[in-house]
Amino acid sequence: MDVERAEAGETVMTLVAEERHSNPMGTLHGGILCDLADGAMGMAYHSLLEPGESFTTLELKINFLRPFWTGRLVARGRVVSRGRTVGLAECEIEDDQGRLVAKASSTCMTLRGDAAAGR
């Protein structure tokens, strides 16, 4: 995975999927799409944290919308809401032709003080 762009509350990541990333049916393994989406959303959320804050994921949801085999994927993560404690990020993953392959969302909890230590 490569970070193409990272700004406050938004991240663009890419991945060139190869045959080695496939599931037994031959299409791209859903876990790869989850990792790409989680990375893009997590970086976007992290970009809005204050010094001394960290976060954890409370929920990760993904919808697989079309099969994908090999090639370049683009994941656009953005923060929808950054509340004091709980926030929401989302991600759309598209193929090189701009077709939506998957859409994900992540509920994040901001950690402070002892809860953020070591994270």
Describe this structure in words.
This protein is mainly beta. 14% of the residues lie in helices and 50% in strands. The protein contains one helix and six strands, in the order E-E-H-E-E-E-E. It has a six-stranded antiparallel sheet, covered by helices on one side. A hairpin with a 2-residue loop joins strand 1 (2-7) and strand 2 (10-17). The radius of gyration is 15 Å and the shape is elongated.
* Span of the ends, CA to CA: 22 Å
- The helix tally amounts to 1
Using the CA coordinates, give the radius of gyration: 15 Å
Largest sheet, in brief, is: 6 strands, antiparallel
Largest beta sheet: strand ordering: 1-2-4-5-6-3
As a percent range, the share of helical residues equals: 10-25%
The coarse overall form would be elongated
- Structural category is mainly beta
Model regions low in confidence, pLDDT < 50 over at least 5 residues: none
The tally of strands reads: 6
Q: Give the mean pLDDT.
A: 97
* Topology order in helix (H) and strand (E) letters: EEHEEEE
What portion of the residues fall into strands of 2 or more residues?
over 45%
What are the salient characteristics of this protein?
six-stranded antiparallel beta sheet, mainly beta
Briefly characterize the structure:
This protein is mostly beta strands.
List the helices and strands and how they pair.
Layout: E1 2-7, E2 10-17, H1 30-46, E3 54-64, E4 71-82, E5 86-95, E6 100-111
Antiparallel strand pairs: 1-2, 2-4, 3-6, 4-5, 5-6
